[in-house]
Write a structure and sequence with these properties.
By secondary structure, the protein is mainly β. It has one domain (2-61). The protein is 0% helix and 44% strand. The protein has strands at 2-6, 12-15, 18-21, 30-36, 41-46, 55-61. The model has no long low-confidence stretch (mean pLDDT 88).
Length: 75
């Protein structure tokens, strides 16, 4: 799952109503957050203005609560 979030004044971003400490130097900038349910990770990416490359800034452990159902691939 992917999310675009603005970095809050305290340097955190909120994903699914959970704040994650991020980077106070990026306050009010936008970051891209990806939850990988298989790897149970939350990955935060940022792209500098006028840059083409996106940088992986931080990886958090993101435990999935409850049962995870594997979907059958149809494509």
């Amino acid at each position: 799952m992917h999310f675009i979030r603005q970095v809050k004044e305290n340097g955190a971003i909120s994903v699914l109503n959970e704040d994650n400490d991020f980077d106070k130097s990026l306050v009010y900038e936008y970051a891209w957050a990806t939850i990988d349910t298989k790897q149970e990770q939350l990955m935060i990416y940022y792209r500098e203005k006028n840059e083409e490359e996106v940088s992986l800034i931080k990886i958090y452990e993101y435990k999935v609560r409850g049962n995870v159902k594997i979907f059958e691939e149809k494509f």
